[in-house]
Each structure stands twice: as structure tokens, then as C-alpha cells.
Amino acid sequence: MSASGVVTTASLLKESALSSRVAKDLVGDNRTSVRLRCQRRRTGPARIRASHCVVDQPLADFRALTSGRTLVAVDASRGARLWKLLNSSFVLWLLSSVLISGLTALYTHRQSRQAQEVQNRALQRRLDAEIGNRIYSTRLGLEVWRTNISRGSPPGTTRGAYAFVALYLNNTAPNVDYAVFGEYRTRTFTSLLIELSTLVDPAELAALRDALAGYQRIAVLSSDTAGDRPDTTEQAIATIDQLLALTEKHFQKPRWTLALYPDRQR
């Protein structure tokens, strides 16, 4: 634009990014605040003379007006096409299919999870009953043995006392069967503990590790040949008392302080 406010049509159209047709429409549009005063050539086809077009408003206002009109028109056109697409039968069918499939998968997953939790709790109860019964039978056997020794029965050896406990816990004592469930009859005590550890909440693992540590101590002492010397009656009773204390410390957990034998709880 020159100092007098005269611009050429070419520069005006280049700056506003409009075609010549749009520019002519704007000239005749009384709703706009932009007015173009142009003179026609005396000869030749009627057209806007490039050297005599004057813009009454600053060119920046003209750009803002025309640019805004263009963007609004484009946005409206895109919105209409998008709305038409969303309301098409294919898109509605696709959305409904995705929604139904998602709800079905969510319901199936929830049902499966609930069934797994029920099965998990049932298996925990069976393992707890088996482990708890073996612990109870072991402690009961120790108390009976202690009573018999105090009445004059042979005291045996320290190693024999620990081996006695290991046999009871593993359900391998001769001529007796302390299994609650037939499928666990040949299972070792440690295998039951390890299986249970895969089912319980993480907060309960510490108690199972403690029980496993207690059994490992019993197993080690049941193989220690240093305990093969015959005990006196007092030594035998002291050993049995140590075993009762050890089993109480490591095995008398809330889950095994049994509902099966509430009178045996300590």
C-alpha cells in the first residue's frame, strides 16, 4: 500500500488469499465494513482498475474479516460432513458392535475372575485343613509320648524325637494315616506349604515362610547323628518340650489354629 492508501488489486488479493471472484463478491456485499472505490477503464472490458482501488479500512481489518469468513465456512462444512458420517447406518452399527463386544468381554472376564476366586478359596481351605490336621496330630503324638516317658517308657534319642515329628508332618509314620483328603496322602509337608503359598495373599506369605523354616530345622536335626545317644528320661522330656515349643512357634498360625479342633488352640 502507498502513503495515499492506494493498493493494487494484485497485492490485495495476494495478501488476503482470495480469488478475484471472492474479491468482487466482497465489493458488492453491503454487510461488510470494507468498501472498495474503483474506477473503470474508459475502454476495454469492465474491470477493477488496479491503480485506482482504494480501501476505506486498513488492510489488516480486511484480512481478518475475509480470513474469518473463510475459516467459519470451512469449519461448518467439516462439521456437517462429520455429523453426517456419524449418523450413517454403518458407523452406528460399528459403534454398537464395539460397545456390545466390550461389555460382553468385561462381563465374561468378571465372571471368570469370580469363579477363579471361589475355586482358590476352596483349595486354600482344603490345604489348610490338611496342614492343620498334620500339625495337630504331631503335637498330640508328642504329648502322648511325653506322658508315656514320664511313666517309664524308653526315652529314646534326640534324633529319634525329631524324626518322629518329621514322620508325622509328612504322613509317613508306619501304620498310621493322618491325611484328611486322599489326594494329599502321599504329599510332603513342604509341598503342601509351597502350594498354599501360590494361592494366598502376599501379606500371608511371611507366615508360610516361617512355617517352612521351622520344618527345615526339624528335618536337619532329624538327620543329625550327634543325637543318636540314648537320652535319660529328663533329657527326653526336655527334648519333647523343645519340640512342642518349636511347633507352637512356627506352626500355630491363625489359619491353622484350627476351627476343626478349637479346644486345642493355645
Structural write-up:
This protein has 266 residues and is an all-alpha fold. The protein folds into two domains: 6-78, no CATH class; 119-264, no CATH class. Helix content is 62%, strand content 3%. The chain contains eight helices and three strands; from the N terminus they run E-H-H-E-E-H-H-H-H-H-H.
Set down the secondary structure blueprint.
Blueprint: E1 6-7, H1 9-16, H2 20-27, E2 36-37, E3 53-55, H3 59-86, H4 89-150, H5 158-170, H6 189-197, H7 205-222, H8 233-251
Antiparallel strand pairs: 1-3, 2-3
Oligomer: single chain
Mean pLDDT: 76
Largest sheet: 3 strands, antiparallel
How many extended strands? 3
* Rg over alpha carbons: 47 Å
Helical stretch count? 8
Q: In percent, how helical is the residue content? A: 55-70%
Strand content: under 5%
Q: Tell me the count of domains.
A: 2
| SSE ordering | EHHEEHHHHHH
Low-confidence stretches: 1-7, 15-57, 69-73
Structural class: mainly alpha
- The side-by-side strand order for the widest beta sheet comes to 1-3-2
